[in-house]
Amino acid sequence: MSSYSDQQSSISENNRSRVLQYLYHNGICSRAQIAKAIGLTPAAITKITAKLLAQDVIEETGDMEGDKNRRSIGLNLNCAKYHIVGVKFARSLVQIAVFDLKCNRIFMTDLPTVNEEHIPETVECIRNTVRRLIKDDSSIVAVGMAVPGPYLKDEGRTALVSSMQGWRQINFIKEFSDAFDVPVFVEQDARAGALAQFLFNPELSKGSLAYYLLGEGIGLGIIDNGAIYYGERGTATEIGHVSIDVNGKPCDCGNVGCLERYCSANAIHERLNANPGIVPGCESMTHAQACSALFAKAGTGDETAMTLVRDIARYIGYGAVTIINAFNPTCIVLGDIVAQAGQPLLDEVERVVLDRTIPEIGRNTRITLSTLPTDATVTGAAAVAITNFLEHPSMFFDVA
Amino acid sequence: MSSYSDQQSSISENNRSRVLQYLYHNGICSRAQIAKAIGLTPAAITKITAKLLAQDVIEETGDMEGDKNRRSIGLNLNCAKYHIVGVKFARSLVQIAVFDLKCNRIFMTDLPTVNEEHIPETVECIRNTVRRLIKDDSSIVAVGMAVPGPYLKDEGRTALVSSMQGWRQINFIKEFSDAFDVPVFVEQDARAGALAQFLFNPELSKGSLAYYLLGEGIGLGIIDNGAIYYGERGTATEIGHVSIDVNGKPCDCGNVGCLERYCSANAIHERLNANPGIVPGCESMTHAQACSALFAKAGTGDETAMTLVRDIARYIGYGAVTIINAFNPTCIVLGDIVAQAGQPLLDEVERVVLDRTIPEIGRNTRITLSTLPTDATVTGAAAVAITNFLEHPSMFFDVA
Fold first, then answer.
1. Which SUPFAM superfamilies is this protein grouped with (chains A, B) (predicted)?
2. What is the pLDDT of residue B10?
3. Which CATH code fits B3-77?
4. pLDDT at site B242
């Protein structure tokens, strides 16, 4: 292809993507509304939408009220027609779900708890499960995967997974990119979660959005003015390995006093195991189960459980203070296993933030629990693929 | 102006800016080279350069060797013709310098040490000094100012200045924006320093650049893929107030264990005052003088001085580890007062980074001392104005 026609096709793809994104975010619109909003001529919009209609990507919805009472035909993106598989890799936890383009969940399954020794078997099991889903549902057009950070995005590897180093051996791009008949997209877990908030929670999509993942690891994803913050190799925003105490607990990463040593689901489980009275039988539970049991007990008013929850929340608050000083986000969304502690957690995090930040900065940072119906990282895995669907339509259907 | 002609003039300004930036970064070029490099037609370049020639912003340099041995005329940006004033506000320290567009320093002066009680007088003194400079040098076209963070960029105020709260009362935009006959630009100090590295040290301008300001405060400026990282209100990258010990020394900002309580010039001076044997007479010195004296003594091989320098460097190293985990920069440049400790400081910072980061991430982060001939923040104050000169030429000369 000549450089000129290269450029032309990239402009066409960009315009097509802008039409899809506009319809995605605004629902039913007329051609005239789209033309006005994205600054293309009506003729260009007619040409682009004709191709999208021919491919059944969009549909006409009949007459709608237009400008100056002129009637015009509504167009709608067929969001229910396309399904997306989202795969969340935590450390011991793998979840697989199917969504439509609007984040409505159609299916979800948890794989058996992963042991350090059986990671290759888990990879094989994921491949088989996803293949079966694709075979049974021809609407599936893409797979998104959310993997623990620090994720080296160009290499396809996680540089370190505290407490389960076996995941380091897995090259996600190599293991999965050609495993299915549909494209696969991989993203660091907290960034995927941030993308889910960005896509499905429009009031959070302005300014600088931070998704604070409180799960088997502690992670952070930042979307600043619409752009994900990666750094040089994709290992920026690794808040879980930012030290809160240079003389504190040692971590697998080489650092000392890493935030995730104090408030991840694993760290909580460790503390429960050391104090077996709080959640009886916790040593045979998964990290998520142990945390759930603790939060349930705190919910009944048990003082010991409540004190532990508040103590953990204080550490999460210290992390939030660091996030504010390092990234000055508009909003911090708390999600994943530990966020299920709910309002008492949020209250304590807010207290620490007001106590330890400059008032006019801390007070102006909104802190909230994730309100997505499904876990933000599973949803985020799908959001990664949906973002690619909207940005690179020619990967998904014939546009010629 | 109609929206169409608005758009046209913004496109013209953008093209003009691209021509200036190309000439700025590449030196003498032919019209054909510029056209090819920035993707405009030769006719458009002829039109733009004709106006710039008429205004004497650029000049013809005579014949040069063109493509395929065709001879063509070289064009050159008149970098020596335009002078810029850079003003650095530290806490007790104000420096004013004049540079040409290529960062050659023409003049520099230190104002008398600032006391908390005399900040309004200092503001007046800066205004008078800069006015005199502009009166005496008609080449001066802009003033850039670098001020301590956390700087609320839309409000023009610093939200907090540890140890000298009086600066909080100063609204830099209000005090200075109309004070001179030339435009004034204000930026947070470490961001200005990052901009100086970006502009005057081309090998650092790729990827993600971090300027780590080790002065009366500890600051950080990040330029990620050409874009400064601000966050919601401009108070991102406040590394000086990131805690390295949640049970550590309290700070004016409300936080506990803030990095700058351990390794700023002020913190070093405090330690010297508490151990008067190391630098005799230090209690009557400025922070910068006390630090210089300590580094000089360490340079003579004095073991006590060397131990203190190494101890401070270890804290700066902890900060570098946090910068790597939070921002994953390609390169960290150390600058300002404390960086004058030189190689022993750099060695210790590198040792801490290798010890406390994931090897493949830490090893791949370049750490270096600023090599700019003048302090990076003073230079950076000018760089802020130079960036605006190149991006918004119509503010500086007649383009009609």
1. Actin-like ATPase domain (SSF53067), Winged helix' DNA-binding domain (SSF46785)
2. 83
3. 1.10.10.10
4. 98
Confidence class for position B1, pLDDT limits 50, 70, 90: very low
User: What CATH number should be reported for the domain whose range is A205-371?
Assistant: 3.30.420.40
Domain boundaries, chain A: 3-77, 83-194+378-395, 205-371
The CATH architecture one would assign to domain B202-371 is 2-Layer Sandwich (3.30)
**Residues composing chain B:** 400
Give the gap in angstroms from C-alpha A104 to the nearest C-alpha of chain B. Answer: 31
Q: To which H or E segment does residue A247 belong? A: none
**Which value does ipTM take for this structure?**
0.93
Q: Rounded distance, CA B350 to CA B71, Å?
A: 50
A123: pLDDT strictly greater than 70: yes
**Closest by Cα among B189, B104, B174, B110 to B139:** B104
Question: Which residues numbered 149-168 in B keep a CB inside 8 Å of some CB on A?
Answer: 150, 152, 159-160
Contacts 24+ apart (CB under 8 A), B284-293: B286/B92, B286/B93, B286/B113, B287/B92, B287/B93, B287/B216, B287/B337, B288/B93, B288/B216, B288/B337, B290/B265, B291/B265, B291/B337, B291/B338, B291/B340, B291/B341, B292/B337, B292/B340
- Segment A56-115, tens digit of pLDDT: 999 999 887 766 666 789 999 999 999 999 999 888 889 999 999 998 999 999 998 888
Q: Domain B83-194+378-395 sits in which CATH superfamily?
A: ATPase, nucleotide binding domain (3.30.420.40)
* N residues, chain A: 400
Question: What's the confidence (pLDDT) of residue A67?
Answer: 62
Is the peptide bond between A373 and the residue preceding it cis, with omega within 30 degrees of 0?
Answer: no
Confidence of residue B113 (pLDDT cuts 50, 70, 90): confident
Residue for token digits 């609320």? Answer: B152
Contacts of A311 (CB under 8 A, 6+ apart): none
Give percent of chain B above pLDDT 90: 80
**From the CA of B376, how many Å to the nearest CA of chain A?**
21
- Residues 6+ away with beta carbon under 8 Å from A250: A256
Query: Do the domains at A83-194+378-395 and A205-371 have one common CATH topology?
Result: yes
Mutate to test the interface with A, among B7, B255, B330 (most CBs of A within 10 A): B255
Say yes or no: A205 contacts chain B, CB-CB below 8 A: no
